[in-house]
Amino acid sequence: MSGSDRDSKPKRPPVEAAGDDPWAKWRQPETPAVQPEKAGKAIPQGDFLRGAVSPEKRPKSKSAPFESATKPASARAARQKPEPAAVEPAETPVAERVKPEGTLGVRKSTLSTERPINRKPIRGGAVAKRTTLAEKAATAAKPAGKPERPANPKAGRDSVGESPWAKAVAAKPAKVPVIEDKPSGPPPEGVRLSKVMSERGLCSRREADLWIERGWVFVDGEQISELGSRIDPAAEITVSKEAVKDQAKAVTILLHKPVGYVSGQPEPGSVPAVTLVTAENQVPQSGGPEFKPWMLRGLAPAGRLDVDSTGLLVLTSDGRVAKRLIGEDSDAEKEYLVRVSGEMIKGGLDLLRHGLELDGKPLKPAWVKQLNEDQLHFILKEGKKRQIRRMCELVGLKVIGLKRVRIGRIRLGDLPMGQWRFLRADEAF
Question: Which H helix or E strand runs over 324?
């Protein structure tokens, strides 16, 4: 090829003209065009190109453009460093921006769906209640007119100021008490045998049960040995000789109790009054029985007397005497001499006679007389615990001494303190 042909070919533009290089914008600049802290800012295209290496600092090589053009794309990608994510210039049209990947939809939780009735209630809710037959019948029986409020608590949940649980309770039908059928037939006829014997004064009810159990009781000549037997109140009752002998063993003792002895069950630090019933403390009487230790069996006080009181105390094993003195219908009088201190309130004597109550119950009328400034005379027909002392406190007085001198028709008399005697056969309360 001649030199003229070489000269006739057009010369390529010099490499230094960066603006005419078709590959200039695809070459990777040696220094990053965008600083990390400014990566989020949009940089104009002119500024982005100005961040590339200037043509004067680039190595001059005529074959550089052609090497990049002839080498495969994979080799070029391996040689070139990964380009940092370029920020779109501000001038990029909206239509050419990259769209996000994925799909859009409505969140299911925002959709209003009703919960099925047959599901279990969540906390704070309630399951719709089925209408019972009783409620249907009640609804049908009511006259038409004002609509009835729904029985279902869920139906009225939107009402203001009302609790759905209160409606559920109100809607629940009340339980009808089941009345058991009582055994048909007339009530049992007659009266208990032990009660009739006690009312007739034959013995106490406790003694009657004991005699019946032992077969010592006869009703109209027929032996009765079953407890709880009922008879005609007008029937004839007789007892055997064994019952008479057993009753003859019962004794009644009159004791002048000193202060410091308890009348009934012993209390801590106290001594029961029955311990004073000994042969040494007995006051002998002409024609009276001789004391035997077995007489203490079944001996009990018929009426109490306070530990700090003195006077007549009755100890007996005879049920008839006990019933007469402490029975529910007993009207035996108890007479006391009382020494007091203090000043009685105005009208206090009338209050002591018939104007006081203890433990919420009115007291029976009492006979009260003032003997002198510090002594009162009481006659009662009842004997509640510490009754006289509490009565005196209500009228401004304090009891400093109390002595019982009579029970029924039996007086203490001249019986020495701490001694006792038998109730004679000609005596009765």
Answer: helix 319-326
